[in-house]
Design goal:
Blueprint (H helix, E strand, L loop, with lengths): L2 E3 L1 H12 L5 E6 L6 H11 L5 E5 L7 H7 L13 H11 L7 E7 L4 E9 L5 E6 L18 E5 L3 H14 L4 H22 L5 E3 L1
Parallel strand pairs: 1-8, 2-6, 2-7, 3-6, 7-8
Antiparallel strand pairs: 4-5
Helix pairs in contact: 5-6
Length: 207
Amino acid sequence: MARRIEFGDLVEVARDLLARPERRVLAIAGAPGSGKSTLVERLADELAGQPVAILPMDGFHYDDAVLHAMGRRPWKGAPDTFDVGGLRGTLNRLRDPAEGAVAVPVFDRDLEISRGSARIIGPEVRLILAEGNYLLLDADPWRQLRPFFDATVSIDVPEEELRRRLRARWVGHGLSESEIVAKLEDNDLPNGRLVIASGSSADYVVT
């Protein structure tokens, strides 16, 4: 059963992983709008000066052209709109000391595209903070990622708060009310429920 912790406890979990002899991966998952990126960046800031790097799952978004060909562009962000095999391959490289520096993709939210090889994770990095919605999803091919994680964290945010944050996000992007409702009800919140259901399998839960 997942242990509920606060941010200070999460910092200690990360420090414990850093103290171990080999490179470790801490996976942090949460629903859309749960604040994953903010939490991970805050954690990285708290560990400033330590050999830590961030690996964002969003870098493995399929390109819009691919999603159009799949007929899935309106559902961008759903579990099947990511290159899970690419993420698995990257994690495998990151766990192999012989690989040296590894280039990873980063999602550009302004352009709504993934930029390949946008970040380099060097061989000196001892702890990787992997963050994304579906890292703990108990369904193939996502469950194949679990062996790469040394510790797992789920972010717990009530659905109404997720709704409020996501609505504000889409308002900020200039979407109409009907477009916002479609985004929330047809994609964001159903995806969030999937993530929340998988959160109970985490080692730790941060509220």
